[in-house]
Amino acid sequence: MASFDGAQLPRQPLSMGLLLSLEPPELRRLLKSGLRLGLAPPELEQLLCQDWGLEAGSPEADTLLAALAERDWFRWNPQAERWKTHLG
User: What distances in angstroms separate CA 47 from CA 10, 14, 73, 82, one per listed residue?
Assistant: First the structure.
């Protein structure tokens, strides 16, 4: 599993510069995958499993997604039915 500490994430709007500087690389890959069309739930589940070693719905996965949603970087878009990354 990739290491992740949501408390260590900056609390500022997400920009491409910030996205490219984030660690670990799995976090950058997750956020990049959510750009443009976003991720359908099965795509997110696969990414969480492959990159993070997490099962969707697990406390660890929920903590990761909550930390990103709290910063308004990555959240569920009900109209598109996809997980999307938000810049700005």
Answer: 23, 20, 17, 14
